[in-house]
Each structure stands twice: as structure tokens, then as C-alpha cells.
Specification:
Layout (H helix, E strand, L loop, with lengths): L2 E4 L23 H4 L5 E8 L5 E4 L1 H4 L5 H4 L11 E3 L6 E5 L18 E6 L4 E2 L6 E10 L2 E10 L6 E8 L3 E7 L11 E8 L6 E8 L2 E6 L2 E4 L8 E10 L5 E11 L1
Antiparallel strand pairs: 1-17, 2-3, 2-6, 4-5, 5-17, 6-16, 7-16, 8-13, 8-17, 9-10, 9-16, 10-11, 11-12, 13-14, 14-15
Keywords: Lyase, Signal
GO molecular function, one term: lyase activity
Protein name: Alginate lyase 2
Length: 258
């Protein structure tokens, strides 16, 4: 089993999921505090062709001094992706989308994002260990998708599970009821698994092992009902903004196991 903890090296003596924000270096760019080499970042920045700019992990956590040279948004005041100067957390912001206020998004989506996806091949949902752990806080936004299990091998380029943070503090799972989702006239089976106020740190975990899908807030894992099988999947996390207003999250801890 491969186990990768995305935190700076000197915290390895701490418990794996301690999530102590004091371990983050406020002087470092995100790729210096978190090992992002195996993640690609989708942004609401125009890539020059009207599509979202995707930042590879090799730019986020480059060889050499990632603390100084890791990529962050060079827009006005580091607009969408940057490190928080007070605590070193990874700030991920995304604009809202509406017909009167468009933003840079993928053609197959109605929403904009600052969101990571795994850059490696999708993994089996029936064998091995597949776990994502994130510690974060939400600053503002009506509805934010903060994590995903994305299906692969079904013929549909759609989420299998989306984890939402709502403005009332509810943390909600949405499990697809068919592979094509809304394209096939299907919705999501939703379950509220926690409640956390704005600007309050909390953890979530996603697991998909042995064909069993689980999600939890602050360590309280729940097994979720599923409606179809996906032979492979991958993780996403960050700020996939579902609202028409802007949204912001801060990431304090990230780990993944495969």
C-alpha cells in the first residue's frame, strides 16, 4: 500500500491526521507546505483559448525551492489560489457563475472552480486502499463542492459522489443515481453528514474500497448507498463553486492513500 501524506516533511513525527495548522509555514507558497506533485489544479483563469488553465503538479511543487517557486495565482492580490500569509493555509477561491456574470469554466459544466484532481490513472474501486482526508474551513459561498469521487470506465465523465458545504453549515453527500447524471435525467441521493459553521476548521474523509463508498466529517464515517458500479475512480478536492456568488475555502491538511 502506498501512503502519501501531503504536508511538509518536518511534521511527519506528528499523528498522521493531527492537522495542526501551526505546522504550516506562512512564508511558503502552497506547494512548499503541501506536496502537490501528484495533483493538477483546475482554475477559473483563461488559458488563452477560453478554457480553464490547468496547472500541473510539477509547477505547483517544483524541484528545488517549492516554498519560494511553487505556482500561485499572479492575478491582482493573488486572486484565486495562494497561501494565507497568517497561517500558511492553502486558499482556493472560485467565482460564481450566471448568464449575466459568466466565468471561465469547462463546456460540460455550469460551474467554475479552483479544484485539484489526481493526475495518475484512475484506481480500482473494488481492490486496494483508496482514501482522501482533508482539513479545511469555508469562508463564504452559498454552495461549494469540496470533494469528489469521479467515476471512470462507465462511459460517462461525471461525478460518482460530490461532497457539498452549504451556507447553513450543512455538509452533504450527493451520490449519483445513474452514470450520466443530469444528462440522463438522473439526480443525486443526498445525505447530511455534519454541520460546521463558516470559518471553522473541520475534517472530511472519503473512502471507496471493496466496492463500498464511505464519507465522514470529523472522523464519523458513514457508509453510503450506491446505485450503480464504476470500475475505476479518482479523487478531486477544493472549491468547485455551485453558486452564483463567489466562494472561498482554506485547506490546512491533505493526505491520500492508495
Amino acid at each position: 500500500m502506498q501512503f502519501t501524506t501531503y504536508q511538509i516533511a518536518f511534521v511527519s513525527i506528528l499523528p498522521i491526521f493531527s492537522g495542526l495548522s501551526s505546522a504550516l509555514n506562512p512564508s511558503c507558497r502552497p506547494g512548499g507546505n503541501f506536496d502537490l506533485k501528484k495533483w493538477d489544479l483546475e482554475t477559473p483563469i483563461d488559458n488563452g483559448s477560453g478554457q480553464p488553465k490547468v496547472i500541473p503538479g510539477s509547477d505547483l511543487t517544483p524541484a528545488g525551492d517549492a516554498c519560494k517557486n511553487g505556482w500561485q495565482d499572479k492575478g491582482s492580490d493573488h486572486q484565486w489560489f495562494f497561501k494565507e500569509s497568517t497561517d500558511g493555509s492553502m486558499v482556493m477561491k472560485a467565482p460564481g457563475y450566471s448568464s449575466s456574470r459568466p466565468c471561465i469554466k469547462w463546456s460540460g459544466s455550469n460551474h467554475c472552480r479552483s479544484e485539484f484532481h489526481e493526475d495518475t490513472a484512475a484506481w480500482s474501486t473494488t481492490s486496494g486502499t483508496n482514501r482522501l482526508h482533508v482539513k479545511l474551513s469555508a469562508g463564504y459561498g452559498t454552495k461549494i463542492c469540496i470533494g469528489q469521487v469521479f467515476q471512470s470506465g462507465t462511459g460517462s465523465n461525471k461525478p460518482y459522489l460530490e461532497l457539498y458545504y452549504n451556507s447553513n453549515g450543512d455538509v452533504v453527500t450527493g451520490v449519483a443515481t445513474c452514470p450520466g447524471g443530469a444528462n440522463d435525467g438522473c439526480g443525486q441521493d443526498t445525505t447530511t453528514i455534519g454541520n460546521v459553521p463558516f470559518n471553522t476548521q473541520f475534517t472530511y474523509d472519503l473512502q471507496f474500497e471493496g466496492g463500498v463508498l464511505k464519507a465522514g466529517v470529523n472522523g464519523n464515517l458513514k457508509t453510503l448507498k450506491t446505485f450503480f458500479t464504476t470500475p475505476k475512480a479518482s479523487f478531486k478536492f477544493g472549491n468547485y463553486n455551485q453558486g452564483t456568488d463567489d466562494a472561498s475555502v482554506h485547506i490546512f491538511e491533505l493526505s491520500v492513500q492508495h
